[in-house]
Amino acid sequence: MKIILATQNKGKIRELQDLLVDEDIQVLSLKDIEGWEDVEENGETFADNAMLKARAAVEKTGLIALADDSGLEVDALGGRPGVFSARFAGEPKDDERNNNKLLQLLRDVPEDKRSARFRCALVVATPDGREFLTEGTVEGRILRERRGSDGFGYDPLFYVPDYSRTMAELTLAVKNKLSHRGQAFRKVIPILKSLKS
Ligand SMILES: O=P(O)(O)OP(=O)(O)OP(=O)(O)OC[C@H]1O[C@@H](n2cnc3c(O)ncnc32)[C@H](O)[C@@H]1O
Ligand SMILES: [Mg+2]
């Protein structure tokens, strides 16, 4: 079985490839596809956007596609950046500027009001038109300075109380164990298995 990861994000590709390593599935990503043009992510929810990306990848490749749409919801910002997480500080998307903007906006927000969560929607779409959605969430809070150098995106600012570490201080294996993406992915396994047979 061969699937296409419908993402261009290197951090996601690394995590998803690691999650898929024992599954006996050949994995391609959009990086392997010539002439791929990003779809407009104009959905209102992570699920909508994951669906758009998965469908576009199936159409382009004819393969089963796995798409991830994810982001950060900060309570003190009314749930922002949410579906706008990648481009929070404008185009082109840039993790460094996004984190700076987040720190700036939360400058005067006290410790007990800095709660946040990562959300992930994964969609599996098949060439014969079937679609499956799974979701995952992880709770945490936003620090006042970056810690750690692993991961991507908002990981250096996202503190996970259960592990007393930021996401960027966790190994890939531990992040995958607890993360929004890891949780959503574990629900995808039985779906992929059912498509194999
Ligand atoms: O659309 P694709 O090609 O998959 O890549 P993207 O980076 O644009 O991905 P999204 O549209 O889903 O935007 C998600 C953003 O949310 C943030 N994000 C998502 N998951 C994250 C994680 O595990 N750790 C840190 N930040 C994350 C990060 O800034 C991402 O760029
Ligand atoms: Mg995107």
UniProtKB/TrEMBL annotation:
GO cellular component: cytosol
Keywords: Hydrolase, Magnesium, Metal-binding, Nucleotide metabolism, Nucleotide-binding
Record note on cofactor: Binds 1 Mg(2+) ion per subunit.
Chain coiled-coil ranges: none
Family matches, as InterPro entries: dITP/XTP_pyrophosphatase (IPR020922), ITPase-like_fam (IPR029001), RdgB/HAM1 (IPR002637)
A GO biological-process term: purine nucleoside triphosphate catabolic process
GO molecular function, one term: nucleotide binding
EC number: 3.6.1.66
Required cofactor(s): Mg(2+)
Binding site for substrate: T7, Q8, N9, K10, G11, K12, S70, F152, G153, Y154, D155, K175, H180, R181
Active site: D69 (proton acceptor)
Root EC class: hydrolase
Pfam families reported in the protein's UniProt record: Ham1p_like
Catalytic activity: XTP + H2O = XMP + diphosphate + H(+); ITP + H2O = IMP + diphosphate + H(+); dITP + H2O = dIMP + diphosphate + H(+)
Residues that hold Mg(2+) according to the record: E40, D69
Subunit structure: Homodimer.
Cited function: Pyrophosphatase that catalyzes the hydrolysis of nucleoside triphosphates to their monophosphate derivatives, with a high preference for the non-canonical purine nucleotides XTP (xanthosine triphosphate), dITP (deoxyinosine triphosphate) and ITP. Seems to function as a house-cleaning enzyme that removes non-canonical purine nucleotides from the nucleotide pool, thus preventing their incorporation into DNA/RNA and avoiding chromosomal lesions.
Family statement drawn from the similarity comment of this UniProt entry: Belongs to the HAM1 NTPase family.
Protein name in UniProt: dITP/XTP pyrophosphatase
